[in-house]
Amino acid sequence: MRLARMSLILACVFLLAAAARSSDGPVDEKAQKIYQDALKSLHNHEEESAFNGFKKADKQDGGHCLPCQKQIVKLGIKFEDWKAAELAATEMVAEAQDERAAAIAHDEFGSVLMNEGYRRHKDEFFARAHEEFTKALAGHPRFPDALFFDGMALAQLHQDDAAKSQFEKFVEIDPATDPDRQRAQRFINRMELARAHMAPAFAVTTMDGSHIAMDDLQGKVVLLDFWATWCGPCREALPHIQQVAKKFQGQPLVILDKDENAWKAFVAKNEMTWPQYRDGYFGGQLSKLFGVNAIPHTFTIDADGVLQEEHIGDASIEGKLKKLLVRARELQAATGSQK
Q1: pLDDT by residue (tens digit) across 211-249?
Q2: Closest by alpha carbon to 273, among 297, 295, 303, 250?
Q3: 145, 146, 149, 152 alpha-carbon torsion, rounded to 10°
Q4: What angle do CA 237, 289, 262 make, to 5 degrees?
Q5: What's the rounded Cα separation, in Å, for the pair 264 and 266?
Q6: Cβ neighbour number for residue 33 with a 10 Å cutoff
Q7: Order of strands, edge to edge, in the sheet holding 297-301?
Q8: Model pTM greater than 0.90?
C-alpha cells in the first residue's frame, strides 16, 4: 500500500542536492519551455499535467533531462505508471557522469522497483531492487538510503541474515535523531516487522514540547488524526474524536493543522487535551509521509507499529481500537512493560 512505503521515493538529501546542481533543466530550447510549464503545473498542484509535461520535456531533450527524470520517477511512483518511472530511472543510470551520480541513479531505480513490488506483490521486483541497491553501494558503501532499503528488499525475499547485516550497517552510520535508525533497530530484532505494513517512522515535537516518535510508542495503540480548523467535516467529526479520546484516555492522538494561531486557540477552546502537532496541511512532513490528500483522515496503528486501518471522514473506530488494545495489554503483560 502507498502509505507505509512513501519514504521509498526519498534518497539521501546530501547526495540528491549534489546531483541537482549538476543540471538545471533540459538543453533543448523547446524542452526548456515545456519543462518550465511543467514546474508551474507542479507548483499549482496540477500533478497529472506536470507529470505529462516532464515526460514530454525529457523526450524532447533526447532523454537527457535529469530534473525531468527525477520528477518522472517521483510522480510515476505516485500514479503507478511503472513504465514511465522505470524508463526515467534507466535514463538516470545511463546519464550518470561519476560514481556519486551513478549511486543516486541506482538508488532511485531501486526505489521504483521496491514500490512496484509492493503494489504488484511479486518478488521479482524486490530481487531487481536488491540488484540496483547493490550497484549503488558498490560506488558508495556508506549510502544510508541504499543500505536501509536493500535491507527491506532482502527481508521481502526472506534473506533475513543478509537483511539484518544491511540494517546493522545502516544503524552504525545513521544519526541517532533519524526515526529510520530506530526503525532499523526494531527490524534487526524482529525481522518479520520489515515485511509488515508498518506505519511510516516519524518524530515530532508536540504543542506542549513533548517529543513523540512512532517507534517510541511500541506497545501502545495509536490513533493518528489529520484535521484542520477551517475544515467543516473535521469540526463535525470533532465530538466523536473527543469521545474516543475520553474513552481511551492515555492513548496518543496526534492532531495536525496549518494556521498556528488559529490552531492553538481552537485546541484550547475545544479542550483537546491529547498530544497535538502542527504539520502544515498537505505540505507538511507527516501529510506527505502518510499521503494525506483529504481530511479528516485517521490512521489506526497497532502496538507493533503496524498500520491496521485508514479512514477518510468520520468513521466508527471504537471496535477496532478495543481489539487492538486487548492485544496491546497482552504484549505489555508478556514483557512486563507498563508504558
Answers
A1: 778 888 788 888 888 877 777 887 887 888 778 777 776
A2: 250
A3: -140
A4: 45
A5: 5
A6: 14
A7: 253-256, 222-226, 297-301, 307-312
A8: no
* CA dist., res. 138 & res. 130, Å (int): 12
Per residue in 59-68, pLDDT (tens digit) is 999 999 999 9
CB neighbour burial string for 285-315, b if at least 16 within 10 angstroms, e if fewer: ebbbbbbbeebbbbbbbbbbbebbebbeebe
CA dihedral of residues 64, 68, 74, 78 (deg, nearest 10): -110
Residue 26: asked if its preceding bond is cis (omega within 30°), the reply is no
Q: Which three cell numbers stand for residue 242?
A: 473527543
What is d(CA 68, CA 224) in angstroms, rounded to the nearest whole number? 34
Task: Tell me, letter by letter, the H, E, C secondary structure of the chain.
Answer: CCHHHHHHHCCCHHHHHHHHCCCCCCCCHHHHHHHHHHHHHHHCCCHHHHHHHHHHHHHHCCCCCHHHHHHHHHHHHHHCCHHHHHHHHHHHHHHCCCHHHHHHHHHHHHHHHHHHHHHHCCHHHHHHHHHHHHHHHHHCCCCHHHHHHHHHHHHHCCCHHHHHHHHHHHHHHCCCCCHHHHHHHHHHHCHHHHHCCECCCCEEECCCCCEEEHHHHCCCCEEEEECCCCCHHHHHHHHHHHHHHHHCCCCCEEEECCCHHHHHHHHHHCCCCCCECCCCCCCCHHHHHHCCCCCCEEEEECCCCEEEEEEECCCCCHHHHHHHHHHHHHHHHHHCCCC
Distance from C-alpha of 120 to C-alpha of 89, rounded to nearest angstrom: 19
Here the cell at position 61 is: 531533450
Q: Which residue has the cell 517510541?
A: 216
The answer to whether the beta carbons of residues 195 and 205 sit under 8 Å apart is: no
